[in-house]
Amino acid sequence: MDTDTPPGSSPTPRLSRRRLLGTGAAGLALAGTSLLPATSASAATRSRVRVATYNLNTGSAAATRADMDDLAGRVALIGLNESMGVEREATAAWVRARPNWRWFRPVSRAGQTRFKGSNAVLWDQRVFALRDQGARFGSKSHTPTFEIDERWITWVRLTHRESGQDLVWIQTHMDPSVERDGRPREDAEARIEGNLTYMRELKALAAAKSERAEVLVGGDWNVDARADRRVGHHRFPFVVLEERDAPAKLPGLRTTYSHFGFDVAATSGPPQTGSYIDDLALWVRKAETARVVRFTDHHVVTGLRSDHRPLVAGLSIDHAATTGWDPA
């Protein structure tokens, strides 16, 4: 591992890797959910790292490389959407030219859709070590205008070198044009049903992976999170994935928006009046004492070249030697 501190990481000493056993997906929550670091843990036994999700729809190799350079200077892990065509080739070339970075983009095999690889994950190998990777079918797509026939879910399991904790990152992308001001569009029934299937698959995968790792989800969910939170429609992510942010529904997924609100630029459209359709979520465990990873903040990067903006989050990660988990 390089002695210099990589971008998006904290300079605390590295500890040996230990396996984390989670609490699973069952049980009732304690009241007063918080994703902030617990005050009882000392700074010496906690690491900080920054991560991002980005729909890289730049349409240009030069723009893709420039955006990747920008993000790589800010974070240590990036989940990408629309890793297709020129963006895919430019990202592959970008990774080849940077020995500290690795990526996973699923490869379509015989009989599989070419869109299996549209979600990708990149990480700085000075910060993370790869343990496992895979892709899971999410749902049939109903977006003939965009010629997309299937939606897939990409995941990687990484060990955070400094803390010794295992993290699973899941990258996602759902069908667009399903919502207007938090309510279903009249012409979107097939897309909404497809997204419901996708969310069920995502939630099941996150729960399963949480048994032995901390789980983070990134991606373009194509529903304005601010409007969704206000309306709370039963077929959209705030209800289906976050279960209305109810403490009694933990363990479960909670987004940075549910914790920090919307005092950041929109991820799509005008920065001040656009939509928050790109999301970062954490699988939050039932008990405060069982929470190894917590969000510390979030922000949206402006001035890049896609029609989306990257959503960046800070993470606090307790070191494995201080969590009390059985390393078996």
Report on the structure:
The chain is α+β, with helices and mostly antiparallel strands and 328 residues long. The protein has one domain (43-322): Endonuclease/exonuclease/phosphatase (Deoxyribonuclease I, Chain A, 4-Layer Sandwich). 19% of the residues lie in helices and 30% in strands. The strands form 3 sheets. Strands 3-4-2-1-14-13 form a 6-stranded mixed sheet. A hairpin with a 2-residue loop joins strand 8 (179-180) and strand 9 (183-184). Residues 12-34 have low confidence and may be disordered.
Indicate the CATH architecture.
4-Layer Sandwich
The percent of residues in helical segments reads: 10-25%
Helices, by number, come to 6
**Average predicted confidence as pLDDT:** 88
**Low-confidence regions:** 12-34
Question: Helix-strand pattern, N to C?
Answer: EHEHEEEEEEEHEHHEHEEE
Give the helix/strand class: alpha+beta
Cα separation of the termini: 26 Å
